[in-house]
Design a protein that fits this description.
Blueprint (H helix, E strand, L loop, with lengths): L2 H4 L31 E6 L2 E4 L7 E2 L11 E4 L4 E7 L2 E5 L3 E9 L2 E15 L7 E5 L3 E5 L3 E7 L4 E6 L4 E5 L5 E3 L3 E6 L5 E6 L5 H13 L16 H5 L1 E6 L3 E6 L12 E6 L3 E6 L6 H4 L2 E5 L2 E5 L13 E4 L4 H5 L5 E6 L28 E3 L2 E3 L23 E4 L11 E2 L36 H4 L4 E2 L27 E2 L52 E2 L2 E2 L17 E2 L39
Parallel strand pairs: 8-9, 29-30
Antiparallel strand pairs: 1-5, 2-3, 2-4, 4-7, 5-6, 6-8, 7-8, 8-11, 9-10, 10-13, 11-12, 12-15, 13-14, 15-16, 17-18, 17-33, 19-20, 21-22, 23-24, 24-27, 25-26, 27-28, 31-32
Length: about 600
């Protein structure tokens, strides 16, 4: 039978033990259907803490944040969280930032010290972002740029680009914050609120503007469904190709010889999603939480599949285990193995409530459905106990195995299987036979920088209590972390939606509000023109470090033994040089001195 005829086979008879989730069914909100905040960038010493961990540890890019997680940036450090396809939260040096709550339409952060910004280029209708500080809670329901500075004296909140927000202090009435306005709040029991026109942009603001411009203008957005995080990195670390069997696929550059998906990183315990993959690669978000991996002409390629509404998964792998697995692979001790799911293969969840865990599903997959290398119709009932074969198992070294007592406790140093009997590996059909320990809650080994004690014990004002999911650690293993013992937040009534409360008193400028300061000058530079031939990937916006812009690392390319498979996808032409006239100097307007420490100098803008 030819391959074409095989794709129309529909008579797959499988015993019924529970219908598989269909692709067109909405995923259960209590199991899937939400995307966690992603730690998408860090520069300098950034620490991370998750409830139940032994101590603060160094943070790593590509962590999926959960409610209760906290981050701290040391002196000279920065971090970035992605909370939407076009929405970012960034924290500057000496800042403690915590994720307090995340629902499908609500995300809640707290800032107890330092300065942070929210660059929201997109925010769905009915969605709310809340920022809790020691002096007040700030509610944001529309796009814009927002800046928060917190120090011992009080909190400063600034709106830009048409952003509006509502401020609710402890023991006070809600106050509306208009576009291009600055509020200064002092005091906690009885807050004193003053308003000013927003000051001019500083280096931190300009760096935020420029970085977001860069992240949302990507070539890869042509091939990936809207709403997938981290696609900007695909532009810089790989190539898009058109392969007849799979359509648009992405092939990473610079991977080591013998590399296979899900082999360079670690498993981390998430209190909502359970075991979650954290990849080491800077591009390691989208290809490990969406789509499928395929093996084409001796290359591993990531296939996003036909464009549908994306659905995040903690990993897209099939697990192997069972009594004879360790003997089969030669480890001699109980082990767990995994392989990347191939084109159209169902995900069998190892997390979630009864009725969801262990039930095959294709949420977020828009291509054909394949079970045991056979294409099936949407009406076919799939029994998880009858799924035995995964196509990628037959690829050399594609299955990774590790002993159970090391799973989720360190970076993977796998025993790659060199000889695979595809019919001899028994899939795990539900929850994994591995329990998390305290080390499973940390993304890295070692001790991270600890925030100052007064920052750790500083309470905030909030409209909702924090949701800290208790980690499912075995009895006697969990060791409470005494360092993060902030008092419970002061809960205030949330402001009514679309409210326009009265403006607070004007600042120290008398009875007349000072005029808007002149527009900040636009800083531009001519783009560099690549020589004729291959177009090099666009360099990322350089991070701010030590007051001087850091040059971006040169792109790494793999020496290909042969031409890449398929045909090249569309590429952007080389940019053309253009002349830029220097901006005329403008008068400096007077405005209140920033309450937070001056940010480090930004690198030159990207364009």
């Amino acid at each position: 039978m030819t391959r074409t005829k095989a794709t129309v086979i529909t008579a797959l008879v499988i015993l019924f033990s529970g219908r598989a989730w269909a692709n067109d069914e909405p995923p259960p909100v209590n199991a899937m259907g939400r995307t966690p905040a992603r730690l998408s960038f860090l520069d300098g010493e950034v620490s991370f803490w998750r409830p139940g961990a032994k101590d603060w540890t160094p943070a790593r890019v590509n962590i999926a944040l959960a409610a209760g997680d906290a981050l701290y940036t040391g002196h000279g450090a920065n971090l970035e969280l992605q909370i939407g396809a076009r929405a970012f939260v960034r924290a500057g040096q000496d800042t403690q930032l915590g994720l307090e709550n995340q629902e499908p339409d609500f995300v809640q952060f707290k800032v107890t010290a330092g300065h942070a910004s929210l660059d929201l280029r997109g925010l769905a209708a009915g969605h709310t972002v809340e920022i809790d500080t020691p002096n007040a809670a700030f509610t944001i329901e529309r796009v814009g740029y927002y800046r928060i500075n917190v120090d011992d004296a009080g909190t400063t909140f600034i709106t830009r680009r048409g952003g509006r927000a509502t401020m609710t202090p402890a023991g006070g009435e809600a106050v509306g914050i208009n576009p291009s306005e600055q509020l200064v709040i002092e005091g906690t029991e009885t807050a004193r609120v003053e308003s000013y026109v927003a000051p001019e942009l500083d280096d931190w603001d300009r760096w935020n503007y420029d970085r977001t411009d860069h992240l949302i203008d990507t070539v890869s957005s042509r091939y990936v469904a809207p709403g997938v995080y981290g696609i900007d990195a695909l532009d810089h670390y790989g190539n898009w190709r058109i392969v007849p069997s799979y359509g648009s696929v992405w092939i990473p550059d610079g991977v080591a010889a013998g590399w296979v998906p899900y082999s360079t990183g670690r498993w981390m315990w998430d209190p909502f999603f359970g075991w979650t993959w954290v990849d080491d690669a800077p591009w390691g978000w989208a290809p490990f939480h969406y789509g499928r991996w395929v093996y084409v002409d001796s290359y591993w390629a990531w296939a996003p599949g036909p464009v549908v509404r994306p659905v995040y998964a903690p990993a897209l792998v099939a697990f192997f285990g069972g009594g004879g697995f360790a003997v089969h692979i030669g480890l001699g001790v109980p082990a767990v193995g995994w392989v990347a799911l191939g084109w159209g293969e169902p995900l069998v969840p190892w997390w979630g409530p009864v009725g969801f865990v262990g039930r095959p599903c294709w949420h977020g997959w828009g291509g054909p459905r394949i079970v045991n290398n056979v294409v099936i119709e949407h009406t076919t009932i799939v029994n998880v106990n009858d799924i035995h074969n995964y196509r990628n198992v037959g690829v050399h070294n594609s299955v990774i195995a590790i002993s159970r007592n090391r799973f989720g406790q360190s970076v993977i140093q796998p025993s790659a299987l060199t000889k695979i009997d595809a019919h001899g590996l028994e899939p795990i059909r539900g929850a994994l036979p591995v329990k998390p320990v305290a080390a499973s809650l940390a993304p890295a080994e070692g001790r991270g920088q600890r925030p100052p004690e007064d920052v750790l014990h500083r309470g905030v004002v909030a409209t909702r209590p924090p949701r800290q999911s208790a980690p499912a650690l075995p009895s006697g293993v969990q060791k409470p972390m005494p360092a993060l013992t902030a008092p419970a937040p002061r809960i205030v009534s949330p402001p009514p939606r679309a409210a326009a409360p009265a403006r607070p008193p004007l600042g120290h400028q008398g009875d007349i509000e000072r005029s808007r300061p002149p527009e900040a000058p636009r800083f531009e530079r001519p783009p560099e023109v690549s020589p004729p031939g291959r177009v090099e990937p666009r360099a990322p916006v350089p991070p701010m470090s030590g007051g001087q812009p850091q040059p971006p690392p040169p792109p790494q390319y793999r020496s290909a033994p042969r031409e890449l498979p398929g045909e090249p996808a569309n590429r952007l032409p080389p940019p053309r040089a253009r002349s830029v006239q220097p901006a005329e100097p403008r008068a400096q307007a007077q405005h209140p001195k920033p309450r937070a420490g001056a940010p480090r100098a930004a690198g030159p803008p990207n364009r």
